[in-house]
Amino acid sequence: MNDAAITLEHVTKRFGQTEAVRGVSFDVRKGEMFGLIGPDGAGKTTTIRMLCGLLGADSGTIRVLGKDPVKEHHAITRTVGYFSQKFSLYGDLSIDENIAFFAEIHGVKGYQARRNRLLDMMQLTKFRDRLAERLSGGMRQKLALACTLVHEPDVVLLDEPTTGVDPVSRREFWRLLSEFLSLGITIFMATPYLDEAERCSRVALMSEGLVLALDHPSAIRATFPGEIVEVIAEPLEAALAVVRQDARVQDVQTFGERLHARVEKGQGEPAVARIRAALQQTGVEATSLRVVATSLEDVFIDRVTHAR
């Protein structure tokens, strides 16, 4: 595809007997925000490291901006920014010094104005002399993003950038990503958070090295084969036992203090009435019982279940 910033075709990567990535194919369009979504061990980091040229694929083809990231690694580093899953900045350097270091290793000349703009966008200007080791988790993530962007890459690869940061910092980080997206930068992000997938133009749901679904989040949700009845009740274990006894409930999953019971399309409201009556008969108190919109998490669990 001429408008593709990233393409993978039948890519496989093995570590010993383990297939971390299994025949994966997809493309990422220029200027879009693409999410690779999945739990730990899904193959997300391995995929990103192959896109960076840090790992070679055992089979298949990878192109980033039309280049082979392994054979043309030097060219890739000039046009791609990589945000590592692990904090990779220098704790004994200040914010200013970290950004300067990353600018210089990328061969950026006259980076001071660019650094100042990034610090303003990240709201880090007044902290520019603070050592990186003394920053909060959210400030470290913003500094890492600034270092990733200082050489003005066309593509940014983010490996779980919001893991371990507080909700306010996550929201601020997403605001920044939206700003950079508006500048035409292609953003490829791996994350375990399904709620973050909703912010992407397209997502790939990944599990155990396989891509289980690939589309716009709303289109993926629309593929769910049924309706979801949400049950909030006390005690939850007793409510789970009652819901499982309903022969017309196809599946039930626990989400924190909630149960999600899957029924056939069009059967949500009848299921609500049946489950409410069954809970009352067993003395379980339901604080909420309703049909809810299908989430990506519902789809993901359904796809993983049927993939096994």
Describe the structure.
The protein has two domains: 4-221, 3-Layer(aba) Sandwich (Rossmann fold); 224-307, 2-Layer Sandwich (Alpha-Beta Plaits), CATH 3.30.70.100. The mean pLDDT is 91. The protein has a six-stranded mixed β-sheet, with helices on both faces. Strands 11-12-10-13 form a four-stranded antiparallel β-sheet, with helices on one face. It contains eleven helices and 13 strands. The protein is 36% helix and 29% strand. It has helices spanning 44-52, 73-79, 95-105, 112-122, 137-149, 167-182, 194-197, 217-222, 236-244, 268-281, 296-307; strands at 4-15, 18-29, 33-37, 59-64, 80-83, 155-159, 186-191, 202-207, 210-215, 227-234, 251-255, 258-263, 285-292. The chain is of the alpha/beta class. The radius of gyration is 23 Å and the shape is globular.
What brief labels describe this structure?
Alpha-Beta Plaits; 29% strand; alpha/beta; 36% helix; Rossmann fold; four-stranded antiparallel β-sheet
